[in-house]
Amino acid sequence: MSVEQPGATDPLVIRNFSIIAHIDHGKSTLADRMLQQTGVVDPRQMRAQYLDRMDIERERGITIKSQAVRLPYVGGDGIDYVLNMIDTPGHVDFTYEVSRSLAACEGAVLVVDAAQGIEAQTLANLYLALENDLAIVPVLNKIDLPAAQPDKYAAELAKIIGCDPDDVLRISAKTGLGVPDLLERIVRDIPPPIGNPDAPARALIFDSVYDTYRGVVTYVRVIDGRIATRDKVRMMATGEVHELLEVGVISPEPVPSKGIGVGEVGYLITGVKDVRQSRVGDTVTTSQHGATEALGGYRDPMPMVFSGLYPIDGSDYPELRDSLDKLKLNDAALVYEPETSLALGFGFRCGFLGLLHMEIVRERLEREANLDLISTAPNVIYRVISDDGSEIVVTNPSEFPTQKISKIFEPIVRATVILPTEFVGTVMELCQQRRGSLLGMDYLSEERVELRYTLPLAEIVFDFFDHLKSRTRGYASLDYELQGEQEADLVKVDILLHGDAVDAFSAIVHREKAMAYGVMMTAKLKELIPRQQFEVPIQAAIGARVITRETIRAIRKDVLAKCYGGDISRKRKLLEKQKEGKKRMKMVGRVEVPQEAFIAALSTSDSPKK
Amino acid sequence: MPSLPPEGEQPPSDGSLPPSALSSVGTRPFGIYLHVPFCNTRCGYCDFNTYTATELSGDVRRDTFGEVLQSEVAFAREITGPVEVDTVFVGGGTPTLLGAESLVRLLDEIRGQYGLAAGAEVTTEANPDTVDQAMLDRLRAGGYTRISFGVQSAASSVLRILERTHTAGNAQRAIAMARAAGFEHVSADLIIGTPGETDEDLEASLDLVVGSGVDHVSAYSLIVEAGTPLARRVQRGEIPMPDDDTAAHRYEMVDDALAASGFAWYEVSNWARPGGECRHNVNYWASHDWWGVGPGAHSHIGGVRWWNERHPSTYAARLAGGHSPAQGRERLTPDQQHMETVMLALRMASGLPISAVPATGHSPVEVEREGERGVEGGLGSAVGTGSVIARLADDGLVDPHAAAAGVLVLTRRGRLLADAVIRDLLD
């Protein structure tokens, strides 16, 4: 039996690693190159970004769902190795998923663009890897670029990791230059997995993907024992028991095997249809003679950002519901419930891990289900304690109590910004405006600084990133992770149209920012809402107290004078057109508001032009 | 000229009408409109179907065009069969460019083919620049009873923006000559709300028309029609877009001044001294029957509307070949007829009988009275017509007394918001 046979691989020849890289720094290209150089993919079948399966990932150049590929590799020492490359999601909202992927590894390849240097998210993931005691293989990619400054960024990397600049590999994933050296370094520097083959089976779920044909495909790393086909397995956090229909490895297409053992990485198929039944971070064991103690670190996915999603065409509501139901099968973090808005009709209140998660969900709904959607301004989750000590969790401004509030808590994050030194002043000013408090500042090099702040999450979800980019001409990168909560003086601002609150525009904001929000929204709506047959006040109010007001003057003339001799048809057609237009109006009390006005008012394009 | 998009159905080339439509002929007033598609110069705001000499090719000549129109009158008579004509209206373009003899021969053709009803109203439009006493005398003697002058404004600055060639003095003289010629009715058209027009300008215009002794005034707000030179000048920023608030204010000025001089509104944009109403136009608005003769002219008989080829050459060629000059037509559905009734009748002082409004509307509006707000939101609560009307009355858009008597009559505020009222009623 070959040592490469899944289920019978000596842990000593296994190397489990992740690639940590920023979007566009070349992770997918590097993965492609490794597939080629280890010969696991036939050159004729090779296509760019082979591992990123979803179109959306390929187009955006980001990886949402990680995968694990088993690469057979003959080392320079002549030994047959098995490299398990575990891909990681590359964005801030998926920190937890990243941490589970890293927990499945003994090492990480840190890939940094030799023309750009390390970015905040990469740095954050690097810290995660270091916390997990992973061996780090630092790599500068794209050294073939004219703008590459490998010496400078090698020094920067060496300083961050605490290694010698000469230890930083210089490669070009595009041309393949340096990739053989990298493979050797992986074998040399990353330790093999250690586990007890005789102990009860324990495998860490680091990814769980819904497949239309196979149901949920669960990716695991075996820590102890062995998992074999036709075992009954138990998910230790949820307690669910499933029959194992198939076990295998991805190399790079699925290869079924009889089982997988200590240190191995593979997939399980149990026939379940919902990723919630097979959760990232959970421990898989056998149902008989199973482990009693789960691997640490499991956490329920917790939506932190909420937004209303509405079809622009109300008749698309059932399709939106079906599409969300479908998406949910593959997205354990997505939560939603039906919601009705006066302004926007029927839709869903959705909870997301963060802003990117929200964007991805929305984009997939729009693209895969061909839906036109409008989303309300995102808000975070609040904990409100009333005078009598009872507590409610607010995920929607409409749930915000209007009185007898004793304390309000909002989530805060620890944010890291990496930026050129010249922008430090303006970024600190921005963070200050967003109620941030400085935790620290480090020079990564003479030109680049790392700023660390505590910021309310609410301040970040509201166009913070746009402002950050525009203030730094695109050179800043941001990462943040949840850091608990803080008490804050928050109020709900309602926007009233002719006396009626427009639910979609209510917002929970810091008391000091209530006026600014009110002024901004009322001014915007004044521009967007056509004049009516009567005067329409637009007010911003906290409870019953109006804080600012605009007025739309009554329209005085709405009549087409000319009747064009006998051309009655033309006038009738004009009227038919006007009636069509009126049908698209939403009524807020007696005020006719074009749907476009709501959409325009909800778009956050008031941020500075980039 | 931008041409109309090809809508409606293809009309039969023999011009025949369905029997249901023909059966209406003679049961109600019958009119003939004649379109003269010529102008000396084109005014910048105008998107009517009219051509200057340089815009026409050799096969269409002003001096023989009257005969082409006459041939359509004969064609019309073949289709409609005999019926006395109650009103004739020659419009344009600039009808007076045909010359008095040609206009009289046209009327003679109608007399010969159809015959005029006793007391028939026979109107021609005229440009103050293109008439003299002899011409007006000839028209009057030839049977024309009414003349309508495009005065537009008394202010030379406004006339310049409109690219009109006449002066306030011309207009005044032309009206005086028409009265001297013995026309029963003389009308003046005004354009209000032209960018640059001041209140004083409009006062001067109103003084002119009231003082000149006309018995009918039409006042239209300037509309910037797509494709006109005016639209291009507005787009280039040379002229500001006419402002609706200003237009509303000017409309009120017109209404005040004319009311003070014994005129009453009988249609949103038309005022007359008693007996001075234009019967021909009233026939349009009452959806009676008329045949529109000439390029681009519109006709309506018994629920069928059609319109002619717009270009004079195409138009003339169709007739010369013995074919109907119609380019498109539509047979109105009951819904469309109802819509037109609401849209047209509501614009008139005689009003819209409440019985003509459908019994159950699905209006999203809710009744809101002083100090009390309906508790139902705006989520499409079905409210009957009665409450729509009550709200229109409460909002001061329709006359509550007339409404109590079963007729919807617009107040002055309602006239200025007529389209909105119509939309509410058609919901």
UniProtKB/TrEMBL annotation, chain A:
Species, as recorded: freshwater metagenome
Descriptive protein name: Unannotated protein
InterPro entries: EF-4, EFG_III/V, EFG_V-like, EFTu-like_2, G_TR_CS, LepA_C_sf, LepA_CTD, LepA_IV
GO biological process: positive regulation of translation; translation
Keyword set, alphabetical order: GTP-binding, Hydrolase, Nucleotide-binding, Protein biosynthesis
Keyword Signal listed: no
PROSITE patterns: G_TR_1, G_TR_2
Similarity annotation: Belongs to the TRAFAC class translation factor GTPase superfamily. Classic translation factor GTPase family. LepA subfamily.
GO molecular function: GTP binding; GTPase activity; ribosome binding
TrEMBL record, chain B:
Stored InterPro entries: Coproporphyrinogen-III_oxidase (IPR034505), Elp3/MiaA/NifB-like_rSAM (IPR006638), HemW-like (IPR004559), rSAM (IPR007197), rSAM_horseshoe (IPR023404), rSAM_sf (IPR058240)
Domain Radical SAM core: from-to ranges: 24-264
A Pfam entry, by short name: Radical_SAM
Gene Ontology cellular-component terms listed: cytoplasm
Record Gene3D superfamilies: tm_1862 like domain
Any one Gene Ontology molecular-function term assigned to this protein's record: 4 iron, 4 sulfur cluster binding
Entry's Gene Ontology BP terms: porphyrin-containing compound biosynthetic process
Annotated region described as Disordered, given as residue ranges: 1-21
SMART domains attached to this UniProt entry: Elp3
Family statement: Belongs to the anaerobic coproporphyrinogen-III oxidase family. HemW subfamily.
NCBIfam families in the record: hemN_rel (TIGR00539)
Protein name as it appears in the record: Unannotated protein
Organism (species): freshwater metagenome
Upper classification of the organism: unclassified sequences, metagenomes, ecological metagenomes
